[in-house]
Amino acid sequence: MLAKQLPFAPAILATSVAAYGLLGAQFAFAQEGAGQIEEVVVQGIRMSQETAVNIKRNATSIVDSIVAEDIGKLPDVTISDSLQRITGVQVRRSAGEGGAINVRGMPQVLTTLNGESYLGAGSVTTVQPNFNDIPAPLFAGADVHKSPTASKLSGGITGMVNLRTHRPMDFDSGVTTSFAAEGQTGRDSGETDSAVSGLFAWNNDKVGVLLSASLANVNLANYYNGMAGGGSDAGWSGMPPEAGTDADNWNYQGNDMNGDGDLDDRYIAYQGHTAYNQFAERERLGLNGSFQADLGNGFDLTADFFLTDMDEKDRRAGIAISDKWQQWGWAAPLVSSEGADGIQTVQVYQADGRRLKSYSEVKGTVSESSNINVELNYDNGGAFTGAARLVHGRAEQNNLNSYMDLDMADGSQWGVQFPVYPGGAMASNPDGYSDPFQSIVVDYRGDAPRWSGVPDLVRNLDGYAVGALSSENNYDREGEMTVARFDGSFDFADGGLVQSVDGGLRYSDRDAKNEQFHLLAPIGDNNCLVRWKATDVVLGGSTCSYGDGSGTFYTAGNPIALSSFGSDVQWVTDFGGATGIPGVYALNPEAMDNVLAFHNSLYPNNQRGIIPGQSYAVNLQETSAYLQANFATEMGVPVSGNFGVRVVQTDLEVGQRVVGASRDYGAPEVDAGEFVSSRSYTDVLPSLNLAFDLRDDLKLRAAYAKTMSPLNLEQWGGGLSPTYAINSSTGVFEVISANSNGNPELDPWRADNFDLSLEYYIGSGVVSAGLFLVDIESFIERGSVAMDLPDQDGVVRRTTDVQTNVQGDGGQLSGLELSAKQAFDFLPGIWSNFGVDVNYTYSPSDSGNVDIEGNDLPFADNSEKLANFVGWYEAGRLQARLAYNYRSERVVAFNQVWGTEGLTLMQAPTTYVDASVSYDVNDDFTVYLNGSNLTGETEEYYLQWKDQKAWQSAYEPRYTLGVRAKF
C-alpha cells in the first residue's frame, strides 16, 4: 500500500514545503525588520541553488536551471543525470546512467551549447537529445527554456536545453586549477572503476585560456529477463488462437487451453523466453577548451572547442528456451486471465521447446563528436551591440555486433543432426541432447521471472556446440554541421515602451548519413554471401548455391564445439533477479570484442552487406531571420516582455537507398541505387513573453509561441526493412516482421505553445506554479500496419505486421508544474542548515490513439506524472543531499503483437533514489561519497495489462568515493 502512495508524496510535499516556506519567510523578514541580522556567507549547495533562482528570476522567458556547486561538481555521471532534477524533464536510463531526455513529455527538444547548435554523437540522426556520452564535470550548468523567444533558436516543440561550459573569464584573474579523482563500484559488477577530471584556467582580465578534461572507465550491470527479441518493442511476439488445424503452426490446433469449453480465446505468446547477464563497459572522455580576448574598442573574441569520445562494449551471455520459430502455440498457458476482446494474458508458461540454448553477444559502439565555436562580440557602451558567430560540428557513431548461439540439442529436433559438408555428413553437436523437447516452466508472477525444470544437462560442457554466428544490424552514422549567424541589438535611450530591438540572420547546413549493414561471409566455390553462419542454413538457394552438383547442398555453419574455445569459456550463474537457473556455459563475450577478426578466424573474408532499407543520407539547410522588440511599461504594475517573429526557410534533400531483389541466407536485399528527393517549406514562428511584477517578490509570466521541430532523419530517409527467420521444416527464410521508416513527404512537428506561471521569491528561494498547453498541429507517431510481404524465396504466405511512421494531427499536451527551491535559513538552530529542491509535473496528453479497451493513449514516451525531491543539508564543512526521482508509466509502442489495433507496450512507473555527502577538509580539499540507484530499481515492461509482463531491465546500485582539490 505504501508503494502505491509513494509516487504522489512529492507532489503533496512540494505544496506543503511551499506553504511552510511562505509562512517561515514572513517570520524571517519580520525579524529582519525588528533588528540587526548576522550576515550569512552563501556557498556550496546554497550558492548553486541561489544562482539557479537568480537565472530564473532575471530570464526574459520561462526558464529552469541547474548550476554546479563548484568546478566540476555536478553530482552526476552524465549531464542527463543532472537535468532530471529540473521540473518537466524526463530521462530514460541506459545501463543505469541518464541518456535520452524529454521535456514536458516530448522528445522534440533542441540542444544548444553556449547558446548555439550542438551536434552530439548520440543524436546524429535524431532530434531527441541523448547525452550518454557527455560527462557532467565539464559543465558549469544547464538551462531548460520552456517558452521560446524569437531571438532563441527554433527547433524544439516543448523546450530547448542549453548546456553551459566554463570559460576563462568566468574566474578571477590569475591561475585557477582543479582536480578530482574517484573510484566507483557496483553491487553486481564488483569491479573498481576509476574516473578523473581536471581544469586549468588563466586570465589577466584581457586574455584568458582554459582547458578542462574528464576521463572515466566504468562497468555497469544491465540485466534482462523476459521475452526474446524485446528491448525496444514487442516484435517477437504473437497471438495464437485456440481454433485451428494441425497443419497450421500459428495457433493451438483446436485445443481448449484454459478449459472454458470454447475455442474463442487467443493468448499472447513469445517466440522465446530468455534471461541474460549483461555488463556495459564505457570509457568516456571529454575535453573542453576556450580562449577569450579583449581586442579593444568594444570588441572581444571567444573561441571554444568541445570534444567527446566514448568507447562502449555491451557484453551479454544468457539462456533461452524456444521452439526455433516452428510454431507460435509451443508454450502452453498454465496460468492465464481474461484481458479484453477474447485475449488471454499469460502469467505462467509451460515452455515445451525444441531448442534450449545459451548464447553470447557483444555490441561495440564508438561515439565521437567535436564542436568548434568562434564568436566576435561588439559592445562599446553605446546603443548598438552586435555579434558574429561561426560554429562547426562533426559527430559519428559506429556500431559493430557479434552474436553466437550455443545449442545444447543435437539438431535432430529440427532436422540438422548430420548436416552435409564437402567432406561428408558430420554431427552438428554429437553430445547434445536428443529429446524432442525440453519442458521448462517460466513464471512471470512476482518481482522477477522464476524458471523451473531446467535440466541438469546444462552442466555438461561437452554438450554445447555453436549453432549460429552472425554480425547483423550494425551501423555507421556520421554528421556534419556548419552555422553562421549575425545578431544585433539597439537600445533606445528615451525609455519608452520599446526598450530595445533585436534582430539577426542565421544560416545552418546539416548533413547526416546512416549506413546499416550485416557482415556476410563468402562460402563455397561460388562465394555465396551468408549472414547466418549456422548449422541449419543449407546453401541451396535460388540466387547462389553450393553443393556436390547432384542435388545435395552443403551447410553454411561448421560444427564447432564450445569447449574448443578453451579459457574463453565461462560458467554463467548471475541472471539478475531471475531464479531457478543453475547456470549455463557460454563463450566469454569479451573474446568477440574485435568482431571482424573473430568472425574472420572462423569464416574468412567477411564483407559488409549494406541494408538499403535502413541506409540513407539527408541534407537539411535552414535560413532564418528574426526581429524582436523588448518592452517595458506600467499597467498598474510593472510589465516587461518581448514580442518577435522568426521566419525559417527549410530546404530538405533526402537520398534513400532503393530496395532491390531479395537474396538468400539472410543477406540484405540488393542495393538498387539511390533515389533523391527534395522539398522546401517555410515556417513563420511568432512569440510573445510577458512578465508582470505584481510585487517585488511576486512575478506572473504569460507566453505564447509557434514552434517547429524537424523529424528524426530516419523518418525522412529510411526504407522498408524486413526481418527473416528460418523455418527448419521447409528451409525457407520466412518474413516475421518488418519496419518501414522513411517518407520524405512527412511534415515536421508543428505546434502552438501557451504558458502561464506564477513565481514567488522568498529570500534566496522561489516557489512557482505553472500551466502549459501544447496544441500540436502535426506530429509523427509509430504505428503498425498489415502488409503482404514475400518470404526470401519470393512467395507471399501470410500477412506481416509492419511497424511504420504515421502522420498524426490534432494532438494535445497540457499540464501543471509545481516547484520550490528553498533554504530553511529562517528556521532556528540546526534546522537552518536544511533546504529542499522539489518539483512535480502533471502532463496528460492525447495522441489520438486508443488502447484495446477504448482508453485514450498519451504520446509515446510521455509520463503523465513526474516528481523530484532533493533534500539537502549544509553546515560548516559538511554537505549532504538525498534525491528522489519518480516517473509514472509511459507508452513505449502502439499496436503491438501482430499489429493488433490498440494493444500497447507500456513501461511501468520507476523510482530512483540517489544520495551524496561531502566534507571540506580545508578550503581547497574535499572528500565525497555518492550513491546512485540505492534501491536497485528494476524497469518493468508489459503488454497492455500489467499481468502480461514482457521484460524487465535491472540496474545495480553504484557507489563512488572521491577527492576534489582546487588551487
TrEMBL record:
Segments traversing the membrane: none
Domain annotation TonB-dependent receptor plug: ranges: 56-156
Signal sequence residues: 1-30
Domain TonB-dependent receptor-like beta-barrel: 435-934
InterPro entries in the cross-refs: Beta-barrel_TonB, Beta-barrel_TonB_sf, Plug_dom, Plug_dom_sf, TonB_rcpt_bac
PANTHER family in the cross-refs: PLUG DOMAIN-CONTAINING PROTEIN (PTHR40980), TONB-DEPENDENT RECEPTOR-LIKE BETA-BARREL DOMAIN-CONTAINING PROTEIN (PTHR40980:SF3)
Family to which this protein belongs: Belongs to the TonB-dependent receptor family.
Organism: Microbulbifer aggregans
GO cellular component, one term: cell outer membrane
Protein's name according to its UniProt entry: TonB dependent receptor
Keyword check for RNA-binding: no
UniProt-annotated location(s): Cell outer membrane
Alphabetical UniProt keywords: Cell outer membrane, Membrane, Receptor, Signal, TonB box
